[in-house]
Amino acid sequence: MSTATAQALANLSVAAELTASATAVLSDPQLSPGHAACFGMLIEALGAEQARAQIHMAHAVRRSGAHKLDQPSLQAVAQAGAEPTESNFAAAEGHTTAGRTAFHSARSFMQDWLDIPRNIAHDRLVQADCLIGGVDDSGQPIDPWLTELATDFADPALDPRLVAATALKLHSTRKDLPDGAAGAEQKQQLQSDAHQLIHSDPKSARKHIANMVAQVKAGKRPLKALLDEVGLFRRGTRRGLIEYILRVLPSQAAVIEAHFAGTGNPATQAGDRQGLQEAEAEITGEKGEGWDDDSTKPDWAREEDDLPPIPEPAQDSASNPDTDPDTDPDSAADPDADPDTDPPEMESDVEAASTRGESTPAWEDLKPERRRLIGLMALLLKDHRASDHRAGQPPGSNHAGLATAQVSVILDYEKMLQGAPNYAVSSSGLMLSPGEARTAMCNAGIYPVILNGKSLPLDLGRTQRLFTKAQGRTIRAAYQGCAYPGCAMPVERCELDHLDPWERGGCTDIHSAALCCPVHHVERHCGLFHAVKIPGCRPMVLLSPDLDPKQELRVNTYFMTPEQALASDALAQEMTAKWRAGTLTVEIVEP
């Protein structure tokens, strides 16, 4: 056995050398695009396998008692690392001591000897508990905490990083689950739902699982406890800036996020460049530079008769699921962190531009955080000016020329009739209680959209080419974001897409309309994927065979709640089965 493990360790050393050697060759600037794609495919597969190995390593270190190795054994291990030969690995088998050890636990060994950050070492051991198993005080193995996900973790066809991240999320709910059989049942339900999401919708699984965990953690807390913690807290001064922490209810967050979305769009009143420039001038004391005008608006913000198109601006972090704090709440800044600890060095947009000898960045090139701050300050300044000049102002006048946010509240008609507590969700995906929903609908700028009930006739047939505002609001409220599976582009950045081309006699009807971001709108018309029309059902997507060899009908569930995502995935699987069985007539829309 020791010979086999020594050979395996030698193989790992060779694999590391081969990876470094291959990376050096493949970093050639003249690398062909096909080989670059192969490079990406193989490196990601290698990264996934490495992630699986790292958790197995943590389990092996703890199970074997590696932190109890005596000093000569540690020296032999270090020698094998410096000269990775099979004989040196065989000599590094090592011995543990029953006396005083250099490391008091597996975690301290990983942290102090392997130089793994403390939080990462802790997470890997937790993931090992959940997916491989633990070890009791007597050294006996313990079954994994999440048996269903343990099977997924061992499946080579699944990305172990997604399974490991899911295990960590579910493990964080252990103190929020009730005791006894009820807690075990709830844990099993969470695990089963997570398993289904990983298999059916891996691109959006992280977001939905994070939402499920958030619901568990918030489920026990009464409203009074939440209200005791909401507020705007001053954190202190760091690097010449004043920091605040804002904690709000979901219904309040929906209004804030809707305003942020409008601020980022120069075609909306909330994103009006002139008003925001005036607001920044009042904040900074000098006129801002590099602001957009009609000649620099992106394509999606321009009228058809505007100037020729210019290159699209880069997507901000709100459209990237890997950087959005909503996708992984644990990646957000810790509110309880030490206020005296400075963040990593980062140069501001203006400083970076001046260093490179460039002009101040245009509005679309600013960081989204700065755009949002300017929009929020514009609202505060508007209220301040309105109080100073209230005399002579008409009711509801907008002195700064900026608009308040508009939020769509989506109501599940059947759940509403049943009095279900979770029948309402905002257009940004935040669950609202019945009281919050009723309060929201009493405020200006809230548009209740009841789905599954009888609606007003909104189809226009051939009477006009473009969708009306009412149609657009309905489609955006129903679909919530881009139709492409896993795309995180919100409705404010999406375009209405005719599935029945107008130039071929198509109608401007909501049942034949889809919602696509500018990138995927072009890709659909280029034939990289197809929209699929199904009678009595929302349009679905059929990816190209290279992306989906199984050729299954899919729906983007990124903006849905976990319950909606599971139901939509089940519906897509049902439609796929009927389509293949020949019992369902579908229309695959041509580009």
UniProtKB/TrEMBL annotation:
Ranges of compositional bias, category Acidic residues: 323-350
Spans annotated as Disordered: 176-195, 264-367
Top-level lineage group: Bacteria
Keywords from the named record: Endonuclease, Hydrolase, Nuclease
Ranges of compositional bias, category Basic and acidic residues: 284-301
Span of the signal peptide: none
GO molecular function: endonuclease activity
Cited InterPro entries: HNH_nuc
Official protein name in the record: HNH endonuclease signature motif containing protein
Taxonomic lineage: Bacteria, Bacillati, Actinomycetota, Actinomycetes, Micrococcales
